[in-house]
Each structure stands twice: as C-alpha cells, then as structure tokens.
Amino acid sequence: MIQKYGDKNKGFLNFVPFEQLSFLPKRMFYVTGVPQGSVRGGHGHYKDNQYLICIRGEIEVELVSANSHQLIKLIPGDYCLMEHMMWSIQKYLTGDDILLVLCSEKYDQEDYFYDQNEVYKN
C-alpha cells in the first residue's frame, strides 16, 4: 500500500495510492506523543473501517473480531486494516511513535463501542 520514491542521498517521498485502498478515506488523523509502553484505543466501530499505518516507531496492534484474534507489530511503512465490528488496542513501544489512520467514515460518536464482547453480537 505505501509506496516509496527517492534515494538515501535526496530522501524519500512515501505515498498511498488511494485507488489501491478498499475504501476512499473520508477522514484522516494521526497520533503522536504517546509515552513508551502506553496503550490507546480500546474500542471498535459499528460502521467505520480504518487503515492503521505506522509512520515512525513500533506499534503493537491487537485486533479482535468474531472470528479471529490478531497481534500485529507495525514498523514504519507497515499497516493493518481494522474493519468495522473489530475491537482494537494499540501499544506504543518506543515513545517516539506516529500512527496515521485513514477512516472510511466521518467522525460519529455513536459509531464507537468499547465493550470487546460487542464483536460477538452480530
């Protein structure tokens, strides 16, 4: 998904061709300044799908769905897809991490669920 152009003498331009995504993003945000070892997330979405992209550092992502439980370690350039009706937490491993998130839906407070067991109800 993330493509790189350039060289070590001039630097690199890293980009995401949106036509390769499973949805056209309607929202983007990024998370910075999380202390080393801290955990964020602890929720899921009823409708929103999200690409979680590591820009810097190392981020451990736990994804729970009705059919699977995954633990993924992201390093710069790595990503994972958090589909709707998945619950997730992210552990920031270096203290200098940046997580970029591309969202399929606009922000809607009603789209969030916090109880991990919600993934098994549908």
Describe the structure.
The protein is an all-beta fold and 122 residues long. 0% of the residues lie in helices and 48% in strands. It has no helices and 11 strands. The strands form 3 sheets. Strands 7-6-9-4-11 form a 5-stranded antiparallel sheet, with no helix packed on it. Strands 3-10-5-8 form a 4-stranded antiparallel sheet, with no helix packed on it. It has a two-stranded antiparallel ribbon with strand order 1-2. The relative contact order is 0.28.
| C-alpha-based Rg, rounded | 15 Å
Largest sheet: 5 strands, antiparallel
What is the overall silhouette? Answer: globular
Q: Low-confidence stretches at least 5 residues in length (pLDDT < 50)?
A: none
Treating each run of at least 4 consecutive H or I residues as one helix, how many helices?
A: 0
Q: Tell me the distance between the termini.
A: 30 Å
**Residue share in helices?**
under 10%
Strand content: over 45%
> What is the number of strand segments?
11
Q: State the secondary-structure class.
A: mainly beta
Mean pLDDT: 95
Main β-sheet, spatial strand arrangement: 7-6-9-4-11
Topology pattern, helix = H, strand = E: EEEEEEEEEEE
